[in-house]
């Protein structure tokens, strides 16, 4: 009897795309899967045939050989025709192909479409632990220079007595008697069959023979953990640092979660941050503003010299290059912006007053305390 064509078995044309081929196989595989057709030998045989066909057609080289030579390509017939997998023309277990397409890895794991539909595959890989968040406040100086901080927090850690297995030393984990290792149980509601997490093992597929006395079978205990955290220079409020594996411990061999340190930077009494730049205000004497000179101003990295030109007006802003915050992105360091406020003396000695009065007379300020030019501009408003 002539063998059925692979394209015909999957119900597709010879020009079918890879994605459409996969969709066609998925539909057929669900239709003929033995779990959906218990005791139906014809369905089981058809499931094997379509899995065989898909294994050939999903591989570009095998598909090209089949298109050219037909079934003979995998039976050693036809001049130069390639052999089947492994050189002998045979094929893998059809369930391997089904698991591949439906997202389940061979040998357990679960959690893919296969498990949702048929409840198969144990959960021996355990459950991964949850991620944790730690809020850490730092100073602006620490954000600018970088720092190391020790933090302390409570979390679920792997039980040392049972090394995370949940079983008392000398005991072991055994297959769950309720789900027989599947991690799920099937329920029937009329014509619909559905699966749910096994209530006995919580989806693990196994249970401890004798629970550990330290962790009561959970495999982990709550304890205080300490961790040194390196804070890079340039961080800002909202920056997150990730510490891999320092979150909650997993269950039954599952991986630990991660710890996320979320930073907030305290307000500074002198500096205000504007992205990578820093801004500050400093008072200067009115004599310095008038005559000019050089002063020292504070920065987060020590003192810096700032030249004040003569006739500097109050509110003038100066820029100190690269005295701001380092860039987390590795670019140029920010600047420090310095705005000067001219101080007016609140008390004068008799000598200071006399000298100022002399200056006012020489400047003409005594008779004309307000600029004539200002009044010229202001006339139009009256």
Description:
The protein is 25% helix and 26% strand. It is an alpha+beta fold and 382 residues long. The chain has four domains: 6-101, Helix Hairpins, CATH 1.10.287; 132-265, Heat shock protein DnaJ, cysteine-rich domain (Chaperone, DNAj Protein, Chain A), CATH 2.10.230; 272-344, HSP40/DNAj peptide-binding domain (Sandwich); 354-382, no CATH class. Helix 3 crosses helix 5. The model is unreliable at 76-91 and 104-125 (pLDDT under 50).
Question: Level of helix content?
Answer: 10-25%
| Rg from alpha-carbon coordinates | 39 Å
Number of domains: 4
Give the distance, in angstroms, between the N- and C-terminal Cα atoms: 113 Å
The structural class is alpha+beta
- Quaternary organization: single chain
Q: Helical region count?
A: 10
Output the strand order for the largest sheet.
10-11-15-14
The pLDDT mean sits at 80
Sum this structure up briefly.
The protein has 382 residues and is of the alpha+beta class. The protein has 10 helices and 15 strands.
List keywords for this structure.
382 residues, 4 domains, 4-stranded mixed sheet, Helix Hairpins, alpha+beta, 3-stranded mixed sheet, HSP40/DNAj peptide-binding domain, Chaperone, DNAj Protein, Chain A, 15 strands
Write the layout of secondary structure elements.
Layout lengths: L5 H5 L7 H15 L8 H17 L2 H10 L24 H8 L11 H6 L13 E7 L1 H6 L1 E12 L14 E3 L8 E6 L2 E6 L8 E3 L11 E12 L8 E4 L15 E7 L6 E3 L2 E9 H6 L1 E7 L2 E7 L8 E4 L15 E8 L6 H14 L8 H7 L4
Parallel strand pairs: 1-9, 11-15
Antiparallel strand pairs: 2-7, 3-6, 4-5, 8-9, 10-11, 12-13, 14-15
Helix pairs in contact: 2-3, 3-5
């Amino acid at each position: 009897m002539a063998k059925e064509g692979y394209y015909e078995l999957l119900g597709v044309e010879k020009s079918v795309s890879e994605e459409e081929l996969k969709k066609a196989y998925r539909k057929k595989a669900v239709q003929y899967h033995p779990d959906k057709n218990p005791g139906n030998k014809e369905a089981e045989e058809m499931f094997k045939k379509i899995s065989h066909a898909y294994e050939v057609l999903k591989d570009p080289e095998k598909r090209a050989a089949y298109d050219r030579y037909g079934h003979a390509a995998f039976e050693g017939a036809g001049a130069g025709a390639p052999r089947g997998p492994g050189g002998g023309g045979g094929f893998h277990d059809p369930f391997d192909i089904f698991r591949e397409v439906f997202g389940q890895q061979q040998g357990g794991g679960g959690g893919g479409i296969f498990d949702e539909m048929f409840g198969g595959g144990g959960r021996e890989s355990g459950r991964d632990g949850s991620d944790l968040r730690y809020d850490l406040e730092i100073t602006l100086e620490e954000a600018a220079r970088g720092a190391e901080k020790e933090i302390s927090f409570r979390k679920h850690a792997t039980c040392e007595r049972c090394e995370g297995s949940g079983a008392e030393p000398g005991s072991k984990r055994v297959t769950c008697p309720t789900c027989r290792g599947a991690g799920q149980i099937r329920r029937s509601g009329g014509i619909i069959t559905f699966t749910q997490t096994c209530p006995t093992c919580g989806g693990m597929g196994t249970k401890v023979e004798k629970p550990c006395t330290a962790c009561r079978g959970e495999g982990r205990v709550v304890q205080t953990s300490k961790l040194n955290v390196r804070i890079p220079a340039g961080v800002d409020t909202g920056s997150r640092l990730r510490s891999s594996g320092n979150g909650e411990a997993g269950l039954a061999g599952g991986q630990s979660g991660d710890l996320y340190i979320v930073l907030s930077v305290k307000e500074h009494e002198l500096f205000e941050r504007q992205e990578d730049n820093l801004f500050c205000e400093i008072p200067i004497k009115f004599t310095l503003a008038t005559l000019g000179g050089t002063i020292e101003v504070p920065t987060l990295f020590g003192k810096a010299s700032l030249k004040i030109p003569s006739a500097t007006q109050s509110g003038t802003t100066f820029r100190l290059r690269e005295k701001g915050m380092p860039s987390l992105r590795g670019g140029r360091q920010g600047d420090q912006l310095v705005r000067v406020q001219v101080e007016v003396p609140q008390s004068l000695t008799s000598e200071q007053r006399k000298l100022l009065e002399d200056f006012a007379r020489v400047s003409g300020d005594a008779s004309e305390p307000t600029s004539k030019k200002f009044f010229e501009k202001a006339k139009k408003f009256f």
